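Page 47, continued from p. 46.
Same chain as before, 753 aa.
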Amino acid sequence: MTGDIGLPMNGNTIYEQPRLKPRAGETIVTSTCGHNCGGRCVVNAHVADGRIVKISTDPRSWSLDLPPLRACGRGVGQLERVYHPDRLREPLRRTGPRGSGSFEPISWEEALDHVASELLRVGARYGNAAILDLSRSGSLSVLHGWGAAKRFLYMFGGCTDLWSNLSAEAEIFALRMTYGSTAESKISGREPSDYVNSKLIVMWGWSPADGTFGTGTQQYLRHARQQGTRVICVDPRRTRTSSMFADEHIFIRPSTDAAALIAIAYVIMREDLNDRAYCDRYVLGHDEAHLPPGAPQGASYQSYLFGEVDGVVKTPEWAAEITGIPADTIGRLAIEIATTKPTALQGGYAPGRTSYGEQFHRALYALAAITGNVGVPGGNAGTSNGATGRSGIGSLPTGTNPTGARVSSPLLADLLARGKSGGYPADIKLMYSAGGDLFNQCPNTNKIAASLDRVEFFVAQDHFLTPTARYADIVLPATTFWERNDVQTPWAGALHYAIFMKQAIAPMFQCRNDIDIFADLARRVGIDGYNDKAEFDWLRELTRDAVGDFEAFVDRGVARFPPPEDAVAFAKQIRDPAQHKFSTPSGKIEVYSIALAANPDPYGLGRIPPIPTWIPHGDTDARYPLRLCTPKSRARTHSIHGNQPQLARLDKDDVWINAADAGARGIEDGDRVRIFNERGATVLPAHVTDRIAPGVVSIKEGAWFTPDSDGTDQRGCANVLSDDRSAPCGATTYNSNQVEVARLQEIPASPRP
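Result:
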């Protein structure tokens, strides 16, 4: 028996039941991982005697129109997670120094009374900007997610927010500058069903086989390859995606992607291979004749490429010195992109997590525009997301932050260290983290840990004593998604659907739902109306604009919505520009951004030129000659699952190093090595491989910060090495860091007595 697709209901909505029939004595409950990965897959809990005994996934066969929503190893690994022996069982109060892990159990009444009194004290004494919301994306579901903390803190009078997206802020910013104010990263790509229409796909820093960028994405890539689509991958690492799908892999140094793209655009312009008719109609600033009124002479992209202002012609030879890509390869790639129609440029987030990450995305979008590949079948706007439509499902309303205090997320360590003296809105006195592990995931972990002296109170709400929770004063045990009802939608890829996350088991131990914890705090601090609905009433309301038959949705588990009219974003703007303009000031694709020309430093974090520009990333430090990149692990969703030894076997933690770099340091495959710079050090086994560019090393992000008595991390936490600086657009700079690697000296065994 394979899963029941179900019958079309509510117009074109299909309610699917993606599970087998239960065996005698068991119940099968459909849900999905609530975490912040790029997929949204079916995970079915097989429940017997009130306990999950097995996890299965969507059993249906592959279908191009209604593909199955199959889970990866992390989905199956939820069984290890929910019954992990380290699950938090009761509220805890710190008894030792911060970070020591010394806690004692206390009652819920005592814990909530303490938290409420501290919130009231800090707000009254210092103002609400002294309260920092450290909550994050441990759960992205519509009710029991990140919004529960924000709703409470905003109703309490506000807080300081960490505003920028740790993964994709460079893309979010570049989309608005290039395609307009209404362009959103989650809906500015194309449907994976359109992959087959591409003659060429260039995957630039994008690896859905490692980062799970959309449930089913790999199957659609495989289908396109089978139909003759050529695939090229540009990445510092030969990723799983590249190994599985690419006809050609091009190695590049991290943080240099914009230079390569600019040189490609130069070759295309020099050879007169840009789509002139397309550019003249839809693009602003590609040449001098198509600049906005008032723009200075020489401000066009073409003038920049030809060095007419700065005297530097952006040739392949110029870019080769910066990127490590041979000049002839850059020239050949440029000709292939320009002469293969349609070509889809699929840009990942990683090249934007750099010191000037917005320049990568803007240069990629400019390349898509000048070759006439935006808004056409088989082309792409340059983004990695696909969801060009919307499900119409809402989330718990949060309101707005009364303080208006905002800080770019990668600056967390500096905010804590300097506060008002560093120009930030407040000195942080209280921190609240619900479903967040930012001490592990924000840059410069050691600086964060060392910057807590002025913080008077810290509460963490989670499932485990995470690296962040270890520093808290009060730790509150929250339920997992198996222990409550909720709804989730995909945010990457496409495949427009929602999954009802049906409760499988009763809350374990003394764990409580996040929203119920905040409701009790709300009563204690005098907030009315925080949670005025029952769980199912909330879910019915939040889904009513998309789900016509709520009972069928709850019962079957998946509501599949009709796809959008167009499979590629911005198709209407290209098809009918008179009626559907881009939401930029000019109504066109802006290679020259009018908004940036008027306000080149929108966040006070650094000036941004109006055209895509190569900006060197500062002086290199000869002590740390290796460039660090931090890809995803298939065994974790960021730091979630970081304490699961069984799942860890799926993708072990090590440091990739090129054979030439390893040989120069006397490092052999499997050696324990120390990776270090001026900010910290971590220890990992070395993986000596030709699958990484010379001069580059990689460490998978998300490993739990575990310092020894000397402060050296023992588990490969990449953020002990990353700098707490922000790109001008607010993006993180994880992939703009340098390190050195040294073989650990063997410690001689002690002589026997």
